[in-house]
Automatic annotation (TrEMBL):
<feature type="domain" description="Beta-xylosidase C-terminal Concanavalin A-like">
    <location>
        <begin position="307"/>
        <end position="489"/>
    </location>
</feature>
<feature type="site" description="Important for catalytic activity, responsible for pKa modulation of the active site Glu and correct orientation of both the proton donor and substrate">
    <location>
        <position position="122"/>
    </location>
</feature>
<dbReference type="InterPro" id="IPR013320">
    <property type="entry name" value="ConA-like_dom_sf"/>
</dbReference>
<dbReference type="Pfam" id="PF17851">
    <property type="entry name" value="GH43_C2"/>
</dbReference>
<feature type="active site" description="Proton acceptor">
    <location>
        <position position="15"/>
    </location>
</feature>
<dbReference type="InterPro" id="IPR041542">
    <property type="entry name" value="GH43_C2"/>
</dbReference>
<dbReference type="InterPro" id="IPR006710">
    <property type="entry name" value="Glyco_hydro_43"/>
</dbReference>
<dbReference type="GO" id="GO:0004553">
    <property type="term" value="F:hydrolase activity, hydrolyzing O-glycosyl compounds"/>
</dbReference>
<dbReference type="InterPro" id="IPR023296">
    <property type="entry name" value="Glyco_hydro_beta-prop_sf"/>
</dbReference>
<dbReference type="GO" id="GO:0005975">
    <property type="term" value="P:carbohydrate metabolic process"/>
</dbReference>
<dbReference type="Pfam" id="PF04616">
    <property type="entry name" value="Glyco_hydro_43"/>
</dbReference>
<comment type="similarity">
    <text>Belongs to the glycosyl hydrolase 43 family.</text>
</comment>
<keyword id="KW-0378">Hydrolase</keyword>
<keyword id="KW-0326">Glycosidase</keyword>
<dbReference type="InterPro" id="IPR051795">
    <property type="entry name" value="Glycosyl_Hydrlase_43"/>
</dbReference>
<feature type="active site" description="Proton donor">
    <location>
        <position position="182"/>
    </location>
</feature>
<protein>
    <submittedName>
        <fullName>Glycoside hydrolase family 43 protein</fullName>
    </submittedName>
</protein>
Amino acid sequence: MTDYPNPLIPGFNPDPSVVRVDGVYYLATSTFEYVPGIPIYRSTDFANWEHVANVATDISQIGVEEVITGGGVWAPTIRNHDGLFHLIVTIAMGRGCVVYTATDPAGEWSQGTLIEGIEGIDPDLAWDEDGTAIVTYSGLVTVGPDAGLHTGIRQSRVDLVAGRTLEAPRSLWAGSGFKFPEAPHLYRRSDWWYLMIAEGGTERGHGVSIARSASPYGPFDPNPANPFLSARSTNRPIQNTGHGDLVEAPDGSTAIVLLGVRPRGATQAFSALGRETFVSSIEWVDGWPVAEPVILRPREESLDYRIDFAEAAELDLGWMAVRRNPATVATITDGALAVVADGTTMDDHRPAFLGRRQLTQTAAFSTEIDTASGSGGLTVRYDELTHYDLEARATAEGVVVTARAAVPGIRQEWSAVLPAGAVTLHLDSEPTPISFSAEAMTSDFVVFRARSGDTEVTLARVDGRYLSAETAASFTGRVAGVYAVAGTPRFGWFAFAGSND
Ligand code: 6LW
């Protein structure tokens, strides 16, 4: 198989699912509390992917207004049946198991049909020979007195239109004995039905296992070499590999897309970007898959961008808000992004915030804020407890800029006064020295800088380990953007420059 870029889709894009139709690939990932939900990436060569749509363009399709952090949109499966695209997903601690349809994945998706009777997560969708839809899922109880109970991999025939199961669930497999058998996918390949799962949990112990049967309903016999893919106990640069989905690659071979992390620091401890989408190749030996290790191959081309709101007619697909529609946070008005404060701060569940995924390990985010009409700033966020902010507000003395490092239970601030006028805010993550020192243990340092006219100040340099999936114990990743805390601050542009150093 060709050596595809790895990560295939950089930045927080976990639980990837992919389908190939008429030589075109469509890939979807999880979005948790963010809106719009469930990005669709399209490719015709499997190497270059374009973000062409979001399944949930309106919060009413996913209902994540009240979901707890860590809940929300979990683990989509995208498939095509009889010319109609289907995407099934769990809105964890929210709507439950929901299926969306579209004739073109790059177009509009349906409002979503709740499937009653699927008590679990990570639903997969397949059809048996007579066209009956089958949902195979991980029996994790997420709400109620039994929350946390795991009942293994389960399955039911369903009526997708009526939104209900057609039978009581059957148990299929509990995996190889590792924790959390999840992310099941059912595939028909030659005379076998294969049931592929993730197990071991989405952290360092993650892996992919598989079993097969002559029937989609089992019984399933496990692959003696399970887990056939895992990075556990290796010092590979890509860790936590698991939660995969199989697809035919352009050359006819089999590819697996899966999640993984790129931890940094002398002991490979901290993953700033969270779980990203990677790819590896599969060879079939005696009817069982044999996987190549997941090799790091960062893209050569630059991922840098600058968005000038004077030239942007509307917010592009990459902008996300937290538990609310982006349009309720900000609009592009008179050549600037006007972000409307509503009494919230970055400590809130639904901040007046718009952000984008960090795409590279080392990153420089910057923006220009005009505080004449309000206060706000630039931030890098994991969640309402974990965020690094650089905030500006106009006063009689000038523009007061405040750097803030907020982590669970701890907060520190640094302030400076700049001359009145538009202020440029910078949050730069810089790599750590390659050595065996305290400084080298972390993933990076985040430097808070601000400039007005010829005056520039560096307010702070803070350890970046707190903005990592491991320290924040998070399913997401770094999301950087702009926010408002009072009035309606106006942002002239937003820029990202990065490298994978
Ligand atoms: C996903 C499940 C998982 O549904 O985390 O840890 C959930 N494993 O497979 C969210 O990514």
